[in-house]
Amino acid sequence: MRTVIQNGKIVIPKGVIDGSILVVDNNNISHIIEDENFVLVQTDQQEVEIIDADGCYVMPGLVDFHGDMLERAIQPRKKVFLPLNLALYSTQAQFLAAGITTIFHPVAFAGEPGLRSNEMGNEIVREIARFRKNETSMLRHFIHVRCELFNKAGLNTIGPLIEEGLADLFSIMDHSPRYSSFKSYVEYKNYVEKNSTFTAEELEAYAQMQWEMPEEVDSEVIEKLMGLVAKYNIPFATHDDDSPLRVDTFRPRGASISEFPLNEATARYALENNMYVVVGAPNLLRNKSHSDNLSARTAIMNGLANIICSDYYCFALLASVFILFEEGMLLHEAVSYASLYPARASGLADRIGSLEEGKAADLILVRHTQGKIPIVEKAMVAGRWTFSK
After folding, report:
1. Rg (alpha carbons) of the chain, rounded to whole number
2. Sign of CA dihedral 123, 159, 253, 339
3. What residues form DSSP beta bridges with 384?
4. Coil, strand or helix at 384
5. What CA–CA distance (Å, rounded) separates 388 from 349?
6. pTM recorded for the entire structure
7. pLDDT in tens, 191-202
8. With the CA atoms of 228, 231, 234 and 239 taken in that order, what torsion angle do they form, in degrees rounded to the nearest 10?
9. CB 84, CB 121: distance < 8 Å
10. Which residues of the chain are under the pLDDT cut of 70?
């Protein structure tokens, strides 16, 4: 079937045009034509679907570089775990209603019992890999493998996943008590408790052991991981960088993305060294970091970041795009922070991330009025409508 979307305002990389998009059999965008030049010619017996997008923006589907919604679906309450396939299926409607057609699911390997254990991480990665091949998959599911810096045992689990081609994005985390984001032992213990299944006694013993651990990292384990990431050409991100020195710890090893830098100096340094800088949409939406770190809105407006992700709340991503628009940014530029730039950072920009002829037909129809929240009317993934309000 061919689909013609007409009467909408089409957001392309260079601006916004009044036009029509023709989507053809191979699930790609075949033409983007301005209305005054558009004539629908039926050349064969193929059925044509006409969609009237009057009053809507026709935008590229959002590419969410880091969205934690799956973790919350798997473990909606502490120590309560739901089936992985149900969690994956149920979150899709939320992502699509939020305008997200490509999601990088962060899967954390922290080396502690619970949601972020090595064993659970392995199960989640393999379930995503199975699920995305099924007919119940309604958007593009990618796997973001996150490894805790001090998780030595994680190499035995993560290594095979990388070698099997199951890691689409890799990041190094450091949530050890030595890291500067933890200001006290109590703050660190509360962080561990949030995602683990420790008893009170186990939590106290583990947190105390970690708090007293020396600062040295097993460099041999890290080098092995870095070698695998480089060998398989996996996009590599650092996480919560607190200084330019921290950025330079992994940039020479191939890191090209800095996720959630904690301050302006670090974000600026990463950008000056040709890295992508990721900030969270909830931070931008609230105009405040929940941890009193770098303001995402300030970073974007001052040219210190070039990717916005949903982080812990998927509906913040599209809303943050329109906040930037309402504050004076051109819409196509604001949209790129949540579509084209994350697609480039992850090596997918030849297929998705923008509305261009020859690219996949991943798009959303969004209705927006000044001062109101944007509403996704419809979402299309690979030429197939997968969501309708």
Report:
1. 22
2. negative
3. 381
4. strand
5. 26
6. 0.90
7. 777 767 777 777
8. 50
9. no
10. 35-46, 175-183, 195, 209-218
